[in-house]
Amino acid sequence: MSEPIQTTPLFQDVIRKRRSVRKFEPGHTVGKDVLERIVDCGRWAPSGANAQCFDFLVIDEPAVRDEVMGVFLRQAQRLVDHAKGFPAVKKTYLANTVAIIIVLGDPRWKVCFPQATTPGWDKEYKENNEAIFLCSIGAAIQNIQLGVAAEGLTSAWLSGGGEDITNRELAELLGYPDWMRAYGTIPIGFPAATQNRRYRRPLAQALHWNGYETGKYRSHDQVDFYESTLRPFAMYRDEESLETWDDRAEKLGDWDAAFTSAIPNPSGELEPEAEFDKPRTQGQATKRRHKD
Hints:
Blueprint: H1 9-17, H2 32-43, E1 54-59, H3 62-82, E2 99-105, H4 122-150, E3 154-155, H5 164-174, E4 181-189, H6 203-206, H7 220-236, H8 248-252, H9 256-260
Antiparallel strand pairs: 1-2, 2-4, 3-4
Helix pairs in contact: 2-4, 3-5
């Protein structure tokens, strides 16, 4: 018989309360003590070899915040110009943040992770160490976002800071070495409106017991459909379940069961690896890519 486990419902509530919000009320401030508590959540994140391969830059001075916003306004325009079809968001809302936290990754600390002792294993461990490094930084970013939610504030995660041009501009502005990288930029503020939870896959579809359940495999075509057609709606609609969408039949069509049921792949068949470095099909969300 399994033993009962003591849980803390409050922590589950914090997780579910976290939102990616890009509309903040203007005119608010918070104390440095609040921001320190939030950053301390990031400090307690797990990391490979306990190397703590991250630093946290907190921007709470309005003049510096506005300069950081300028960097991201230029970054957003590059998305419009060079990544057509991606639902880019204008970054002007950064003007209403109470602070912006930038999570830097310091690649030197990868030396602390497992290293190959023979040339034949270099590739194996180099790739593995990159994964350890990125997962460590991702854990810190997530902890910070949960810390924000616990304080009754809200945030988003701007992964665009890690692009070469954007990172170089941020490094010049904020004074860190440009060989470090801004893997996470987290604007913090008071939400301008209450937002419901964004789309989440059904738990029964994502959860596998004691081995990979092939009926829950999502096909190449399903990925194509999401990227080309469903993505902008799933990213920004304030509905956790696709089953509640008024235009569910229109938006999902033949893919309804694949996105709303526990078994998206009734045949249980798996597919060989395919190339997904770039979009493979064209739909409502991708048609702009093919325009000049």
